[in-house]
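Pilot study result, target chain (279 residues):
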Amino acid sequence: MHEMIEKGGMVVAADAYPLLQKAGLTSFDAFMEFTGGTRICHKRGRSVYRFELDGRAFYLKRNRLQRVEFLKRLSRFKLPARGAWEEWESIRLVRETGLPTITPIAYGERRALNLEIGSFTLTEELYGAEPLDAFIEREWSAAPRSSKRGEKRKVICDLARLARRFHDRGMNHQDFYLNHFFIDETGNLYLLDLQRVQHRPEVPIRFVVKDLGQLFYSSLRFPCISKSDKMFFLLNYLGQRQLDRKGKSLARKILTKNARIARHDVKLHARRRKRGELR
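Predicted structure:
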């Protein structure tokens, strides 16, 4: 990670601080009250905005404690949702292990009784890159399969190896969907949205299954991704030429997880529409 400095109770990338200072973003409150930019998404207690400063683009993710959500989690004996600190540390860890991801710019939080009541992370845009699902939709969905076979196999192979490297380093994502991978103009892949990343000496198989199940589930809406493409991914992920007994067991668990995710997805969308988070 590039050089970081502490300013105004925040951690900021040294090279970006003069630019942020020029825009008045010199304190925690300034970031939390910032009204510029375009809203990318909004969930209960969380929002993401994109804005530009002198030709550079940034994403500001803010978290605010919501009493209803906090009490609901406590009533279910769950810990509070992971906040900006966990995401900031995950970005640092992923970058330090050599995996491609976003560039962190600034982080800040405010706590009371050791409970996060507000926090933010600022990251810089991946220039010339787009979500992998958008790339698939544009480049593969309407094209004849034979014309994109070589490109498709390269991307799938790179994706499988990135996923395996990520898991081999003791990390699991928990939101391992295609739209959380980005691809740039030269075909390089990046892993984003690291707020829920967990790190252990070794990833339990159930979390490997969860990640891969999410990845496979997000591919279902693309008819251009065939069963043979998915098998090609799994073989490259496992480093095998044909599935052995453990590989076949993993494949069955992934299919079972797909079905569970589909059922959960229906319920989740219904709840988000009810809260006004979806239109």
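One observation from the pilot: The CA atoms of residues 211 and 219 lie 13 Å apart. A full batch analysis is planned for the follow-on phase.
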